[in-house]
């Protein structure tokens, strides 16, 4: 029976082949698991498993650094960087301390690993956007360690193409279908082996999406029901439209191949541009979590850093990172972008991102509305002062344009306080994030106190719709195409313009080529996103004029829901379909 499914197209192009369904998983260790009494031996067993996982991931990364066939279409350095980041997760000091503490309480090694990872998992899931999509990577490290400890086999990805459809024919790449995919499962594949990826989970910045784009392989994520496809059935995947079909004819396949070729040629031409087709400049910047993300930003043509998430330096540690460690991490970004903007977000902790080295805030019935971001930094001024000092020293000998912004700002007084703190440390450009409706409504007042605004669409949606971003059942209220959210973006951009200040967007909403055009039409002056999304956004903007972007924005604002807003905007942006975006 023919199947037609729809998800989110995250890597453009069309691919087809027999379906390989990956459904196995490592079972959760029982909650009441206890060890035999030798805590030291059990701790060593757990840590040895984590070291083994880290070593295996490093070995895979090394293979990607030295591919046997550079033309095979593998993910290369991008995949190697992702695997090395996973290896660091496996040996994170905070995690190992947590595992050891649980074993000391009598918990068996597999359950100790599972529970220690849970704290980090919850923090990432609650952060939303790019950070939430690192959960699959963390789960993979956890499951690999538990599999080592329990002897349970990990689900495998076939390393060879599928058998030919006809005797004597050429081997066929397969379509890999899964609930979700981990980098270690996919990073060693190539487009000679896999024709497309389809997952039921994941999003535009998941590593499935990033690696698929690096490989040039079509991918669709968030495709409900995909794992119910019959194994071996011929599947046609459109990574542009998000459509997944089975039982397709030879004519369907030929038509898809022809359209895909035309789209690739058009994107290549459009990707050379900067800003809109009529010359309106729109700097396209990268969101990063640390130095490990800089190579990808440079390879994808980032014009600077629009969001440096510094919380990765602080989370899961018993003590704050030393000033020298912070300085090195910040300088790496400044060195990578000489003469370009590098926007660093001051530590965004609290609520779903607690810090072990700070006392808990007390009883907070709703932590998301409590002491987080700038509110926490004002209470622990020494932490902010140390961070600003490290930033000032890192910038002293570099030419990059360092800009520092505060998270979770609601009032002009808070904006003024942060700007004064930055200037006291010699930091010339201070800004604030627009993440709560109050900041958007009074954007002109806030902008008058600082040098720039930057909109975080994930939190702005959470607070505008009173919809906890940790609740999947409220995901439709987190849709960045919600017209009310676009209203707030327009208010923030207009307020910044009134104060003659720039206003960017650093939420992952900017990674959608259609929504990027709408944001520009709403008055946003720069866009920042995961590095892998930059080429597609550049191509989409480069094929439309500023007036078309404004028409698309008005059409989206006139809609009554996210689906109709998206459809109305795309109708004003005709080149997107031609580009396959």
UniProtKB/TrEMBL annotation:
EC annotation from Swiss-Prot or TrEMBL: 2.7.3.9
**Location of the protein in the cell:** Cytoplasm
From which domain of life does this come?
Bacteria
Enzymatic reactions: L-histidyl-[protein] + phosphoenolpyruvate = N(pros)-phospho-L-histidyl-[protein] + pyruvate
Residues the record marks as active site: 207 (tele-phosphohistidine intermediate), 506 (proton donor)
A single GO cellular-component term from the record reads: cytoplasm
Positions bound to phosphoenolpyruvate: 309, 345, 458-459, 469
Q: Which UniProt keywords apply?
A: Cytoplasm, Kinase, Magnesium, Metal-binding, Phosphotransferase system, Pyruvate, Sugar transport, Transferase, Transport
SUPFAM superfamilies reported in the protein's UniProt record: Enzyme I of the PEP:sugar phosphotransferase system HPr-binding (sub)domain, Phosphoenolpyruvate/pyruvate domain, Phosphohistidine domain
Domain named Phosphotransferase system enzyme I N-terminal: which ranges? 6-134
Region listing for Disordered, in residue ranges: 1-42, 58-79, 264-283
Which residues are recorded as binding Mg(2+)? Answer: 435, 459
Is Metal-binding among this UniProt entry's keywords?
A: yes
**Pfam families for the chain:** PEP-utilisers_N, PEP-utilizers, PEP-utilizers_C
Q: Enumerate the spans annotated as PEP-utilising enzyme C-terminal domain.
A: 275-541
**Cofactors:** Mg(2+)
Q: Where is the composition biased (Basic and acidic residues)?
A: 32-42, 58-69, 269-280
- Molecular function, one GO term: kinase activity
Describe the location of the PEP-utilising enzyme mobile domain by residue ranges: 172-242
Q: What's the stated role of this polypeptide?
A: General (non sugar-specific) component of the phosphoenolpyruvate-dependent sugar phosphotransferase system (sugar PTS). This major carbohydrate active-transport system catalyzes the phosphorylation of incoming sugar substrates concomitantly with their translocation across the cell membrane. Enzyme I transfers the phosphoryl group from phosphoenolpyruvate (PEP) to the phosphoryl carrier protein (HPr).
Spell out the family assignment given in the record's similarity comment: Belongs to the PEP-utilizing enzyme family.
Indicate what this protein is called per its UniProt record: Phosphoenolpyruvate-protein phosphotransferase
- What gene, per UniProt, encodes this protein? ptsP
